[in-house]
Specification:
The protein has 15 helices and two strands. By secondary structure, it is an all-alpha fold.
Length: 280
């Protein structure tokens, strides 16, 4: 039992360390990638050549990384995702101290609300095409987050209001912004993922009545069986590995052998960090 506890603790330390490093080293990666999409849309609209700069290169790297390794960026390297995890953890801790169950306000409506991020992404791009890119950027919660991160007062009260509303949502629902509102998350969810990076489980090995993996999943997903094809909802998975960590029989996870999962996690983080570092 002690050996298992040490192993879990090592995983938690590494996972937290990866999130902290990316949060402080590259806090604007998600907005940079989304800026790359807006830039491409503008260039296509103007019939101009697509420029390869830090915005478009960041976008290309994150999309390719998602295809190969799943939404690792969302699970570990996105500052907004890490912020949401932290806020929800604090909210759950407070509720636990009050001897109440953690919030999951939108759980029953989760599948229906997933469409919001696609509608929001299309709406933003439509505004960009219409020539309102500056106004969209000014009032974006990304902008407010960046300004607060830099310890400056947000210039737009609308952007600050959007950001505060998202913070409230993060306290009420795990990965609130990522699941329902993130336009970049909408793009990531549509990317094909190589089979070895899709999280699954061998249902024949599951304990009868156990749903630990789904209860802990921030996306509230039911893992597909290893016998099934790629699940249509696999694009909604954040590749955070929480299901693999909580499974009592170590039965959930991607196709990487269990003993290599921690080294592979560190390798993915180092690879993504190195690629981003090379750009900047």
């Amino acid at each position: 039992m002690a050996k298992k506890k040490n192993k879990i603790t090592a995983n938690m330390i590494c996972e937290t360390g990866i999130r902290v490093i990316f949060f402080f080293a590259w806090p604007a990666l998600f907005s940079t990638a989304w800026g790359g999409i807006k830039m491409i849309v503008e260039e296509v609209k103007d019939l101009a050549a697509i420029e390869l700069n830090s915005f478009t290169l960041t976008l290309i790297i994150l999309l390719l990384f998602t295809i190969v390794f799943g939404r690792f960026f969302c699970g570990y390297a996105c500052a907004f995702g890490s912020l949401g995890d932290f806020i929800y953890s604090v909210s759950s801790w407070i509720r636990k101290k009050m001897k109440k169950k953690p919030f999951r306000v939108f759980g029953k409506w989760g599948d229906k609300l997933l469409c919001l991020k696609y509608l929001l992404a299309l709406g933003i791009l439509a505004a960009v095409i219409a020539g309102y890119n500056n106004q969209v950027s000014l009032n974006s919660p990304f902008t407010a987050f960046s300004q607060l991160y830099a310890r400056t007062r947000p210039k737009s009260s609308i952007a600050l209001g959007h950001f505060l509303l998202i913070i409230i949502g993060m306290a009420l629902e795990p990965r609130f912004f990522c699941r329902f509102l993130c336009p970049m998350g909408a793009v990531f969810s549509l990317m094909p993922i190589l089979p070895f990076s899709i999280f699954k489980r061998d249902r024949d090995q599951c304990i009868s009545g156990c749903s630990a993996c789904q209860r802990i999943c921030p996306a509230n997903l039911e893992l597909p069986s290893t016998r099934e094809g790629d699940n249509l909802k696999s694009g909604q998975c954040f590749s955070c590995g929480k299901c693999a960590g909580v499974c009592p029989r170590q039965n959930a996870g991607d196709s990487i052998p269990k003993k290599f999962r921690l080294p592979m996690l560190l390798l993915k983080a180092a690879l993504l960090f190195g690629m981003i570092y090379y750009i900047y």
